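Working notes for the structural subgroup meeting. M.R. asked for a predicted model of this chain before we commit to crystallization trials. I am recording the input and output together here so anyone reviewing the notebook later can reproduce the run.

Input as submitted:
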Amino acid sequence: MSGYNWYVVQAKPGQTARAQQELENQGFDLFVPWISIEKIKRGKRVTEEEPLFPGYLFIWLSEMDSNWRPIRSTRGVARVITFGNKPAVVPGAVIEALRSKLRSDKEPEQVLKSQQKIEIAEGPFKGLNAVFVQYDGEQRAFVLLELLGKWQRLSMDLGSIRG
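Returned structure, recorded in token form:
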């Protein structure tokens, strides 16, 4: 489709998902990169979906053939980003790179369960076996390691253990 490009639409604060839904209902082709974020809420580890660029959506349009008028009056949409009087064009290669990166990041991450046997992959205890106890924040875990005939509780970086 010659003449079509990716443009940027700014959503109203906190209404990225609403703007996406409303524009898709009108038949527009959109790309909104969403990522999974791990957070600690009320002491529990939860995964939430958040937009990679909060408040911004990418829309596939033709400057000549597409009807731009309904975009501005769509619920959740603040405006189309422009430079001067021209809508801001996002190169297709940037969108493809984002899509490719998001696809590669979707590989499953290890989820550890209490009392699961693990191996320490890095650091001074590399190669030793341990027992996973619980998560200690977003990037660390408590493990039990047997040293000199006693079980020691250690906090370790999640990247240094293997399930």
